[in-house]
Design goal:
5 helices; 2 domains; alpha+beta; five-stranded antiparallel beta sheet; 33% strand; Major sperm protein; 12 strands; Immunoglobulin-like; seven-stranded mixed beta sheet; extended
Length: 273
């Protein structure tokens, strides 16, 4: 008689590492008046760790720094997919438009080091200006989470049908700061203030006729592509929605800071064309 083998299902339980294992130098990320800070992250453990970086900051950017053929190479910490390179076996970046975070992931082997450079050179301004950063994220933070994956060991089929793996996690927030008295700090504060003003103008431009615009956007003229079926809440007309977005953008570009001197009634007349 033969015994039917049970299928082995892989599971992974998550636990918290008792101590944050990475060595981060310096421990406090205070950017000097020069405008950049080099940071060294070392894996002192005997295991390979996966590291997730979450950068939430308007004022600061992070680059990965490494040596190649005797030359220092600086690559953006985020935004684009990167190829495999030495101990950094997996690295990618993407933009989270909802949380305003730049996210990256690396795998670092035992006793290897990752070098980061934090700067305030104003990179990615076009992307940042599409997002809204609140005051607490003017300088912001770098969140580091590391994980150790212990792969499941398949037991004998007669013992259990599950193979259990373990993921150990640990994380830490590193606040980003700069000497408030230096000229660079004042420059950053002025830039963030202008960022807030621009978004306040954009919000006012959209909200002053929001109800009327919403009704106009939901109208479908003869010949307009219409989603199949009817709903209680009529869908937006993609064509009209795009037209409204372009019209608001055109007004914002034309008037800019002058919108601060325009009353709500005057702004409505401008939007009416």
């Amino acid at each position: 008689m033969t015994t039917e083998k049970k299928s082995v299902k892989s599971q992974k339980e998550k636990f918290i590492l008792p101590k944050f294992p990475l060595e981060v130098t310096p421990e406090k990320l205070v950017i000097p008046s020069s405008g950049h800070l080099d940071v060294k992250i070392r894996n002192p453990t005997e295991a390979t760790l996966k590291i997730n970086f979450d950068l939430n900051s308007y004022s600061f950017d992070v680059d990965l720094v490494y040596m190649e053929d005797g030359k220092e190479i600086i690559e953006p910490f985020c935004w684009e997919k990167q190829e495999k390179r030495r101990d950094v076996s997996h690295r990618y970046g993407l933009l989270d438009r909802h949380k305003n975070e730049r996210i990256s992931q690396v795998t670092i082997q035992s006793d290897h080091v990752i070098h980061l450079r934090i700067t305030c050179e104003g990179k990615d301004e076009e992307i940042k200006n599409k997002l809204t950063f609140n005051k607490s994220h003017e300088l912001g933070y770098l969140f580091i989470r590391c994980s150790l994956n212990i792969e499941p060991v398949c037991p004998k089929p007669e013992d259990t049908e599950y193979a259990t793996g373990i993921q150990l996690d640990s994380s830490r927030y590193f606040l980003l700061s700069i000497d408030p008295q230096c000229e660079k700090a004042k420059e950053l504060a002025n830039k963030f203030s202008e960022h807030e003003k621009q978004h306040a103008r954009k919000d006012r431009l959209v909200n002053c006729t929001y109800k009327e615009d919403k009704e106009w956007i939901k109208h479908f003229a003869p010949g307009d592509p219409h989603p199949f079926g009817m709903t209680r809440d009529p869908p937006d007309n993609p064509k009209r929605k795009k037209q409204m977005e372009n019209w608001n953008k055109e007004i914002f570009t034309k008037y800019g800071p002058k919108l601060d001197q325009v009353s709500d009634d005057e702004l409505k007349k401008i939007k009416e064309g």
